[in-house]
């Protein structure tokens, strides 16, 4: 399996690893098939993501996508953060092997789950944000049924 230099860099030197104690929003998703679990913490002030941290239990690609996703959302508005999709994460990492694409989906979903948590705590709606799923396999089964 061939990984890009950026994937290897974010795996070997992940950015934003850790916990934000008083996080504005926390999201956790997993993939029961591969056993990856990703938790994202966001600190949000005045409608902007001031800080983002993650804890990931999983393969190198899962760590790399978590690292890149948290880098991509820092400083963004909530609406801009919602636009950080799995495709954006993959592009920023110069691609992922096909069998590892689900890791970028995990990063997107964990991020969206943290945004959802924040929105729920603050009785607000973020346009286009959907309720999170526990296991990303549910998402892909639903997509395949459409």
UniProtKB/TrEMBL annotation:
InterPro entries: NIF_FeS_clus_asmbl_NifU-like, NIF_FeS_clus_asmbl_NifU_N. GO terms for molecular function: iron ion binding; iron-sulfur cluster binding. Pfam families: NifU_N. Gene3D superfamilies: 3.90.1010.10. Residues 2-123 form the NIF system FeS cluster assembly NifU N-terminal domain. One of its GO terms (biological process) is iron-sulfur cluster assembly. This is Iron-sulfur cluster assembly scaffold protein IscU. The lineage of its organism: Bacteria, Bacillati, Bacillota, Clostridia, Lachnospirales.
């Amino acid at each position: 399996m061939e990984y890009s230099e950026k994937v290897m860099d974010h795996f070997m030197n992940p950015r934003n690893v850790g916990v934000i104690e008083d996080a504005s929003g926390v999201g956790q998703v997993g993939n029961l098939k591969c056993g990856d679990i990703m938790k994202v913490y966001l600190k949000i002030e005045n409608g902007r993501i001031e800080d983002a941290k993650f804890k990931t239990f999983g393969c190198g690609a899962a760590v790399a996508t978590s690292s890149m996703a948290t880098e991509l959302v820092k400083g963004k508005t909530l609406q801009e953060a919602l636009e950080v999709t799995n495709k954006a994460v993959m592009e920023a990492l110069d691609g992922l092997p096909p069998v590892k694409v689900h890791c970028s989906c995990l990063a997107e979903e964990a991020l969206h789950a943290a945004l959802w948590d924040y929105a729920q705590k603050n009785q607000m709606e973020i346009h286009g944000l959907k309720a999170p799923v526990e296991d990303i396999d549910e998402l892909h089964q639903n997509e395949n049924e459409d």
